[in-house]
Write a structure and sequence with these properties.
There is one protein chain. The chain folds into 3 domains: 12-27 and 229-451, Jelly Rolls, CATH 2.60.120.260; 41-126, Sandwich (Immunoglobulin-like); 136-216, Immunoglobulin-like (Sandwich), CATH 2.60.40. The chain is 2% helix and 52% strand. The protein has 1 helix and 39 strands. It has one helix at 15-21; strands spanning 12-13, 41-42, 45-49, 54-57, 60-66, 68-69, 72-81, 87-89, 92-97, 102-112, 115-126, 136-137, 142-143, 148-150, 154-156, 158-159, 166-170, 181-182, 187-189, 193-200, 204-205, 210-216, 235-237, 247-250, 257-265, 274-282, 286-295, 301-310, 318-326, 332-335, 337-340, 345-351, 360-368, 379-388, 393-401, 404-413, 415-416, 424-432, 437-451. The strands form 8 sheets. Strands 1, 24, 27, 29, 30, 31, 32, 33, 37 and 38 form a 10-stranded antiparallel sheet that branches. Strands 23, 25, 26, 28, 34, 35, 36 and 39 form an 8-stranded antiparallel sheet that branches. It is globular.
Length: 452
Amino acid sequence: MQSRAGKCGIVRISISSLIGLFIAFAISGCSTPSAPIKAKLASGISVVTPFDGANVTSPFTLTASATTCASQPVVSMSYSIDGGQAIAEPASFNAQVTTTTGPHILHVRCLGQDVSSEVLMTINVSSNPTTTPAAATAATPTFSVPSGTYSNAQAVSIASATTGSTIYFTTDGTVPSTSSTPYSGPVTVASSMTLQAIATAPDYTNSAVAQASYSISAPKSPSTPSGPSIPSYAISQQEIQLLPSWRIKHDPGTSGTSTGSMTLVSDPSLSGQAAKFYTTFSNAGGELYSVSYGNDTDSKNFVYDAQVWIAAGSTLSNLEMDNNQVMRNGDTVIYAFQCSGYANVWEFTTNAGTRTQPQAKWIKSTAPCNPSKWTRDVWHHIQISTSRDDMGNVTYHSVWFDGVESPINQTVNSDFSLGWALGVLVANFQVDGLGTSGSSTLYLDHFTMYRW
């Protein structure tokens, strides 16, 4: 579902843009993935640098692209060293790759709808020649309390393994330097914040920046609701951010352009692995991240539940969080919901046309929301409760932001005849830019969809 193209009011979305966002999910059946092959060109993969058998130094530049993947339209690419953790990339990318010295196998993979193919290349990594031994680097500081959510204040000690080191830290999201506050004892974390620190020492270069993120929330009383009521028999798809085959593309229904990348990171995270979404844009372009998380024609109640982190310096107008389902009759129900920086409220969509000639429109709720006002560098808990009937009429019940409920209680028709695969469930996470150009970094963790 596209995000708004104007500054306020109801916006009409062309159905051609809507179909273009998820056309891959209309393809039924499954092709057999191509076997890995060792070649410069394979099923549309082109590796410009390095060449097979190259001698390189670390880090080295990997430049690759793909037009098709095993005769299917390419969705995204990835690379890994010796079959290790794969790093997701768009269909054309430049990456700086760091690895150990010695021989390695470089895997460059393309992903299409139900297909994949990869190139295997041998490289030999040698150390960078130096004329003067480099100064040792001070050990990166460590924190006595790991990142996470706590119900009371924490006393966090910071240490470095380098003897005689001095530690400097910040709590306001800025990168620490020797002009920052020097560490002299445990730091009291009484509210949600990001703690960053560096270590310095004579004859050492400054350490890397250490970071820990804390969310402090007072325990709720038993009479205070903490979120939507979910029955014990509900089906839950947990940690959706870890699913493979996320699709990354510009939303053609938004103005301007955008590019995006998605990687898994351990910091910041709550589960141990959060998804990092880095988006660049021009003229308020929007980038759509989507993934199929199951198949279910009959469930009628859904809760979109996710932890979202917006990094300091990010520029965005709308943050869209959608769920999509193909019912037993073959029609698609679109549960589209966004925090609008233009209207400063939560918005939802309706089909203002017919099943076969739909007109998707955004409708304003009365619940306030603007992503530019969300506190940066902390985790925010978002829960969206929706349901439908057999005719594709969707009720948007409530949205919870950090445990605070905003009732919506609006029922609209959201039934579209799009020809998607029967029963497919698709989750979306879309980031729209603000202004002529800029970028944003968002993280998604504990992403769960409940249904019953």
